[in-house]
Design goal:
globular, about 160 residues, 2 helices, alpha+beta
Amino acid sequence: MRVGRLWTIGAGGALALAVLIAAIAAEGDQLLATVDKPALLTATPAKALEGKALERKAADQAAPRVVVHITGYQPPHKGAIRGIVKVQKSDGSEQEIGTFGVFPDTAFKAESGRERRFSFQLPKELATGGVKLKVEIVPDKASGTAEGAQLEIGRAEIE
């Protein structure tokens, strides 16, 4: 009985530490993207203590996915936009992992649990824990400058 209690205390401490590390990693995140300034955020595993599960998943299956949750959108004054998602590699370089558009092209502010989600494949070599993401806004084709557009990012997670 004593061993079970110690195991429970140890597991609880590890869980608290994982939550603290995720909070510290996400503390400096810039969650609003504009034409002039990209959103910078940390994607963390979808569930606490999932590092080993992610390693097994990466070995057994195709690459895991990064899911970006958009909680708000303000369309540009003229034209349309695309969001470009890039991941930062360990050497400091960036790799584009996908693009997305918001449809319909109307402003919204999502309630909790009703945000729009966009999913992108994450390179296997980056699927070992939290990763840094950059979400940029660019004009879609030559239809405008994208001025006035904003994307609010709620969070990003690795599944």
